[in-house]
Specification:
single chain, 513 residues, alpha/beta, six-stranded mixed β-sheet
Length: 513
């Protein structure tokens, strides 16, 4: 009995093809922060789609490309394992390979199944491109979500990113995939299709530039924020002989007088897990913070406990050293802040990286917005939470600005922290909200409601930024509707491509194009 063709295992392409696909995947990764080489990423993605739809197995090509993409874009994933190298260092190569293989599986399914939607070179190319966008969408939501280095992120530093205010990150991925697929949507690339893609990109670029040139609203009442960046290396941060030194460094930066002619800050912001004590057992810590702030409230990153549960939190300290508001991080980092089946893994000495106490953190009850009086409504985002626009949309009311505290010292200083900073810029664009970001070792900065960086402290620098808080824009279409319209469009286009396939009287499994 002969099995149907779709049940047969796919034939593996030659190693040369797989190696080329991996190199093309790395080329696509060059579009991500900190390089932003979109002019390299787009041609690499076009060549990848061209190779995939003409291969004996698009899925294998997708796997190799995704593997190369992840290695080039996310090699920083090994950095946390070397913070305590004697304990965790042996895991680093396994984590890197498994992470890259996981991305490869996403791309294998995306490219393989996408290419099979259509028949003929044009529809197969469009299907493969659409599959990549669907893969970005899937990766943004499943297994708690990991929307990092999406295809559309290559535009964050360019005017094209302004489209995210209307179509969000998945819409940017759809634009990227369409621009890459159009030149190769045929039996061979043609100058006419390349010209159409270039013209579409030009229109998007022009539209973004026009939005950036539109005058911004002014705040009704000026507000100045102080962002504190202590530059505490992660491998030293919690050592007994350094804990107090870094705490005193925070205090000294907090007490620094503003430059001549500059106003006093209205709020001082410390980064994530900035203090060496639990919120419930501060000793004299809160009084020391209030004294250094000299009458200015301070938002600090702090750990707190309830019984045997621990939380990664942000607390607001008033001038009388009283805790007025507390937010507990809701969206935790798997294996970084908590371990699934943590009690079992703890028997083997495997615990969450970021937790100072216990084997991990517990998630907070809900997304919150803090009422900071004349400073307006601020939505707190602790580290990883700035990666998820869907979580920001869950806020009970629209904030006036976004407040992110983070500790990116876990991820080295090459690309991981810059990619995280880029995501913060994209959130500002998507929601039309300014974002203040205080990071332990960098990148700290003030971002306006169009994603422009107004002031920044780069990696590995100690200091403060005294910066005015920009005004918010009107709610954006993306803030109102989220990813739903783009997800519906992905589904609709998939159905159209599949229906057009019915016009071809060919066997897609046997087709050679």
């Amino acid at each position: 009995m002969r099995l149907p063709r779709f049940l047969l295992p796919p034939k593996r392409p030659g190693w040369r093809q797989l190696g080329l696909a991996a190199l093309l995947g790395a080329g696509v990764a060059a579009g991500q922060a900190p390089l932003y080489w979109w002019f390299a990423a787009l041609p690499a993605l076009s060549a990848l789609i061209y190779l995939a739809v003409r291969s004996v197995s698009s899925g294998w090509i997708g796997f190799a490309a995704g593997f190369g993409y992840a290695l080039a874009a996310m090699f920083w994933i090994v950095e946390p394992f070397f913070v305590e190298a004697d304990r965790y260092g042996w895991m680093a190569p396994f984590a890197l390979v498994l992470m890259a293989a996981g991305m490869g599986v996403f791309w294998a399914l995306s490219v393989g199944l996408g290419a099979r939607l259509g028949a003929g070179p044009a529809l197969r190319a469009l299907g493969a491109a659409l599959g990549l966008v669907a893969g970005d969408a899937l990766r943004s939501y499943v297994f708690t979500g990991f929307p990092w280095v999406l295809l559309g992120h290559i535009w964050i530093d360019m005017p094209v990113a302004q489209a995210a205010a209307y179509i969000g990150p998945l819409g940017l991925s759809l634009i990227t995939a369409a621009l890459a697929a159009l030149p190769v949507a045929g039996r061979k690339p043609q100058v006419a299709r390349i010209g159409i893609a270039a013209a579409l990109l030009g229109v998007l670029w022009w539209g973004g530039a026009q939005r950036l040139a539109t005058p911004d609203p002014a705040r009704a009442e000026p507000v100045t924020l102080r962002l504190v960046q202590p530059n505490a290396p992660q491998h030293l941060k919690w050592l007994p002989e350094y804990r107090m030194e870094f705490f005193l460094r925070h205090l000294a930066l907090t007490a620094t007088p503003p430059e001549q002619g500059q106003p006093r800050p209205d709020l001082i912001i410390w980064p994530e897990t900035a203090v060496p004590f639990l919120l419930e057992r501060p000793g004299d810590g809160l009084e020391m913070i209030a004294e250094a702030a000299s009458g200015v409230p301070v938002a600090i990153g702090v750990q707190r406990a309830e019984g045997r549960r621990y939380f990664n939190s942000l607390a607001v300290i008033d001038p009388e050293a009283q805790v007025t508001q507390v937010y507990d991080k809701v969206h935790l980092v798997p294996f970084g802040e908590y371990i699934p089946f943590g009690d079992l893994f703890a028997r083997f000495g495997i615990a969450a990286f970021a937790a100072q106490e216990g084997n991990g953190y517990s998630a907070g009850p809900s997304v919150q917005v803090l009422d900071l009086g004349r400073l307006g409504l601020a939505q707190p985002l602790i580290c990883y939470e700035a990666v998820f626009p869907q979580d920001i949309r869950r806020a009970p009311t629209r904030p006036d600005w976004l407040l992110q505290i983070t500790n990116d010292a876990w991820f080295g200083d090459l690309s991981g922290p810059w990619q995280h900073f880029a995501q913060a810029r994209l959130r500002a664009i998507e929601f039309g909200l300014p974002l203040a970001r205080a990071a332990n070792t960098g990148v700290s900065g003030m971002i306006d409601a169009k994603g422009r960086v107004l002031a920044t402290l780069g990696m590995g620098r100690e200091g403060v930024l005294d910066v005015p808080l920009p005004a918010a824009l009107a709610p954006t279409p993306y803030a109102r509707f989220g990813d739903a319209p783009i997800l519906a469009l992905i589904l609709t286009l998939s159905i159209i491509i599949y229906r057009l396939r019915q016009r071809y009287r060919v066997d897609p499994g046997a087709q050679r194009v």
